[in-house]
Design brief:
By secondary structure, this protein is an all-alpha fold. The chain contains seven helices and no strands.
Length: about 180
C-alpha cells in the first residue's frame, strides 16, 4: 500500500506549516532586496522567479529528506497555510522592522559617503581657488573629480541651468526674437 497512515499524515502537517512559514520569511527578505535594488518590472519578475525556484527546491528537498520523496496534496496545502499564517501575523512586523533598518542603513551610508567625499571636495575647492597656478591640468582634474562625485551621487548639479531646452530659455528666446 502506498502513502502514509493517517497519524503520519497529521505529523507531516506541522513540518510543512513550518516550511510555509519559512518560505514567507524568505519572500519578505527577497521583497526587501528587490525594493532596495530597483522597483522595475524586470526586477520583479527576476525575484519572483528566484522565489518560485527556491520554493520548489526547498519543498523537494524537504519531501526527499523526511517523507521519502512522496509529495501529497495535503503537504502542499499545509505549506500554503503556513505561508498564509506568516503573511497574516508577522508580515506587518517584518515590514516595520525592515523600514527602520533600511532608513538607518541609508543614514549610515550618507554619513560614510560624506566623510569619504570630504577630501575630494576639499581638493576641488583648492583647485578652484588656485586655477592660475594649476592651469589647464587643474581644470581637467577638477572636471574628473566632479564627475566622480556625481557618479557616486554625492554631488548634484542644478539641472535647470544645464538643460538647453528648459521652458525659461524658450520663453526668453521667443521674447528676444520679438524685440
Amino acid at each position: 500500500m502506498f502513502g502514509f497512515p493517517l497519524a503520519r499524515q497529521i505529523q507531516a502537517l506541522f513540518p510543512f506549516l513550518g516550511l510555509g512559514f519559512l518560505l514567507g520569511l524568505i519572500y519578505d527578505v527577497l521583497r526587501l532586496l528587490r525594493l532596495s535594488l530597483s522597483r522595475s518590472k524586470r526586477m520583479l519578475v527576476v525575484f519572483d522567479v528566484i522565489f518560485v525556484f527556491l520554493c520548489a527546491v526547498m519543498t523537494f528537498c524537504f519531501c526527499l529528506s523526511i517523507y521519502y520523496g512522496e509529495l501529497h496534496l495535503y503537504m502542499l496545502l499545509s505549506e500554503c497555510l503556513g505561508f498564509f499564517i506568516y503573511y497574516i501575523t508577522f508580515d506587518a512586523f517584518f515590514r516595520k522592522t525592515a523600514d527602520k533598518v533600511i532608513s538607518f542603513a541609508g543614514r549610515l551610508y550618507g554619513v560614510f559617503a560624506s566623510v569619504i567625499s570630504l577630501p575630494l571636495r576639499f581638493f576641488i575647492f583648492i583647485l578652484e581657488k588656485n586655477k592660475k597656478v594649476f592651469g589647464l591640468f587643474g581644470n581637467k582634474i577638477q572636471k574628473k573629480l566632479k564627475n566622480l562625485l556625481q557618479k557616486m551621487k554625492l554631488l548634484l548639479y542644478n539641472k535647470t541651468r544645464c538643460n538647453r531646452h528648459s521652458p525659461r530659455k524658450r520663453k526668453r528666446a521667443t521674447s528676444d526674437e520679438k524685440t
